[in-house]
Structures are given as structure tokens and as C-alpha cells.
Design goal:
The complex is a heterodimer of chains A (222) and B (114).
Chain A: E1 2-6, H1 9-15, E2 21-27, H2 30-33, H3 39-55, E3 61-67, H4 73-76, E4 88-91, H5 96-104, E5 110-112, E6 114-124, E7 127-132, H6 148-151, H7 178-188
Chain B: H1 22-30, E1 36-40, H2 51-68, E2 76-80, H3 86-103, H4 107-113
Parallel strand pairs in B: 1-2
Classes of the chains: A alpha/beta (222), B mainly alpha (114).
């Protein structure tokens, strides 16, 4: 899923300081699963903003809605009848949400309520970790399901480097050295030779370096 | 036991403090409560194992939110006591009453009334 963190409340209060009537739009996709922008968090943000604005003597009128997703035009269209009734809209989706909204409704102003961080998963309740860098050409089959692009601090294709010690990366004792894990797994499975085999160089043209990306699937395009 | 405790404390019963969420505490403050406290079972004694531990984390989170908003975090609190401790219940109620009295009315209530 796409993982995000809540923005500091002071930052959100500053964004909306001149607005009297706002809509907070949650998303039932990834940000609901990572407990940052679903219906529940919409309620918490609305209440927090109302408390802050009442205290500041500048009350705000807040409407709460949560869409199925904010990364598909058909769900964005569900607010077409109400979106212009507000001075501004706070989107609690990942960075895609406010952008899809502002493309669909150019006359309205949209503000993000979360800092979108990475593609990852919940390693335990309340803790998420990065697993994918979205580089566009997956190579984890060479490394038994572990991604050195996303999980090695240097994105090395031929680690471990000299900064690996005791299974940890030199950047922090809390960061596992993925190359240590890859080598250990290969050794345990008796397939260490896999790592010395020649493989084609990684195709970086599909990564972010080539500018904003598009994915076109002809069989689906109408 | 016929113990008395301050009459302006409104009790909301829940099956377990694990049911108490951040939004419930915030709504109370938003609606003008001067303070909110959660009285859960003793730690390690939860029938559902971790309900009271979750409640404490949520109370601490609300304290953090209030601090960010410049409101005294002491207005929300978590207490642990067993169901057999009637006198302690009354004592906590008085303790919280005194604390809130010391802090004065909630700034949210003050502005709403103005």
C-alpha cells in the first residue's frame, strides 16, 4: 500500500487559516489501511480543527466525506454537486488525491492533510516499513523476494558493502542490511552461486529518472 | 458504600476501555467538557487482555493533540482501578474535579459561550 503520515496540525491550521467553510475528504484506499486518512481519521481531524478554531475565536464549518478512492475519476465525480459549496477542501488521501481533485475541479482549492512517504506494508500494528521503490523493472526474483533497490540504503545491486555489520546497516542500528539477509537466505538454501551469475544490467529507464511516468494498457483503453 | 463524588461528573459506561477512541475524547472537549478521564481496569487485568493498554495510548495521543493546540493536556487522563475499589473511584473523581477546578473552564467552552 501507499503509506503516509499525518501532517503536523499547525501546518494544516496555517493552510486553512482564512477559510470558514471546508470539506474534509477521506479515502477508503491505502490511507484507510495505514490509519491516516480514512473515515475515522477524517472525524479526528475535523474535531481537532474545530477545537483549535473555536479556541482561536474563529470557528470553522466542517463537512466530512470519505470516498471509495481518490485515484479514480468516477469516485472524484461523486463530490461534483457539493465541492463548490466550500471555501476549500482538505484531502486526506495520498499525494494523488489532492491532484486528481484539483484536475477535476480547477476552480476549487485543495490541501493535503498527510505526508505521503513510501510503498510498504505493516510489519506490526502501527509500524510500517518500505518494501518497494516503484523503479518500474522488478528484479526481486534474483534476490529471493527481497528488494535491494528499496531496502538497501545505497540501492546496491551487488552488496553487502563495507557498512554492513552484524546484519545491520551502518546508517542505523534499526535498519536491517538487506544484503546480509539476501546472502544468508541464499546460503541457507544452498544457492549462493546465484549471486555470482551474470545478469543483464538493470533497466533504469523505467524509473523516475525518465520524468513523470504513464502506464498504458491497450487492452483496457476504450 | 454510599460514597459521594462530585455531582458534575457525567459517567459514560463502556463494556471495556478498549472501546474508547480518540474521537470520543476529542468530541467531549469539542462539545465543551472541561476535562475527560478514562477509568479502566488495572493493567494486566483486562478481560480482553489489552483494552486498558490501548485506552492509555489513545489518552496519551489526545494529550499530545491538546498540547499542539495550546490546551492543557492535564484535561484528559487515564486511571486504572479494579471494579471492587469503590473508595478509589470516588477519590479519583474528586482528584480530577480538583485538577480541573485548578485549570479553570475549558477555552473551548469559554469561546462557545462568548
Amino acid at each position: 500500500m501507499i503509506v503516509a503520515n499525518p501532517k503536523p496540525i499547525s501546518e494544516i491550521l496555517d493552510m486553512i487559516k482564512d477559510l470558514k467553510k471546508i470539506l474534509i475528504l477521506g479515502c477508503k484506499g491505502c490511507v484507510t489501511v495505514c490509519n491516516v486518512g480514512g473515515a475515522k481519521e477524517v472525524g479526528i481531524l475535523a474535531s481537532t480543527l474545530k477545537i483549535a478554531r473555536i479556541k482561536g475565536g474563529n470557528p470553522v464549518d466542517i463537512t466530512e466525506r470519505t470516498l471509495e478512492r481518490q485515484c479514480d475519476p468516477e469516485y472524484i465525480a461523486q463530490v461534483k454537486d457539493i465541492v463548490h459549496d466550500f471555501d476549500g477542501v482538505i484531502s486526506m488521501a495520498c499525494g494523488v488525491g489532492p491532484q486528481f481533485l484539483s484536475e477535476a475541479y480547477p476552480k476549487q482549492r485543495f490541501f493535503p492533510a498527510v505526508d505521503t512517504t513510501f510503498f510498504g506494508g505493516a510489519v506490526q500494528h502501527g509500524i510500517w516499513a518500505e518494501r518497494c521503490a516503484g523503479c518500474g523493472t522488478c528484479i526481486i526474483h534474483y534476490f529471493d523476494g527481497m528488494c535491494p533497490i528499496a531496502r538497501c540504503s545505497k540501492s546496491l545491486m551487488n552488496g553487502p558493502c563495507g557498512g554492513s555489520a552484524g546484519g545491520k546497516c551502518e546508517i542505523s542500528k534499526d535498519v536491517d542490511c538487506i544484503w546480509d539477509m539476501i546472502v544468508r537466505k541464499k546460503m541457507e538454501q544452498g544457492r549462493l552461486d546465484d549471486l555470482v551469475r551474470f545478469k543483464p544490467s538493470k533497466d533504469w529507464r523505467t524509473a523516475r529518472d525518465g520524468g513523470p511516468r504513464r502506464s498504458i494498457r491497450e487492452e483496457l483503453v476504450i | 458504600m454510599r460514597l459521594s463524588y462530585p455531582s458534575n461528573i457525567k459517567i459514560i459506561q463502556v463494556p471495556c476501555t478498549g472501546r474508547v477512541d480518540i474521537i470520543h475524547l476529542l468530541k467531549a472537549i469539542e462539545d465543551g467538557a472541561d476535562g475527560v478521564y478514562v477509568a479502566g481496569c488495572l493493567e494486566g487485568e483486562c478481560h480482553y487482555l489489552t483494552g486498558n493498554l490501548k485506552a492509555r495510548k489513545r489518552v496519551n495521543h489526545v494529550k499530545k493533540i491538546l498540547m499542539d493546540l495550546g490546551i492543557e493536556p492535564e484535561r484528559v487522563e487515564m486511571y486504572n482501578l479494579s471494579a471492587g475499589e469503590g473508595p478509589r473511584f470516588a477519590e479519583i473523581a474528586r482528584e480530577m474535579y480538583e485538577r480541573i477546578k485548578g485549570l479553570g473552564p475549558s477555552p473551548v467552552k469559554m469561546k462557545n459561550a462568548a
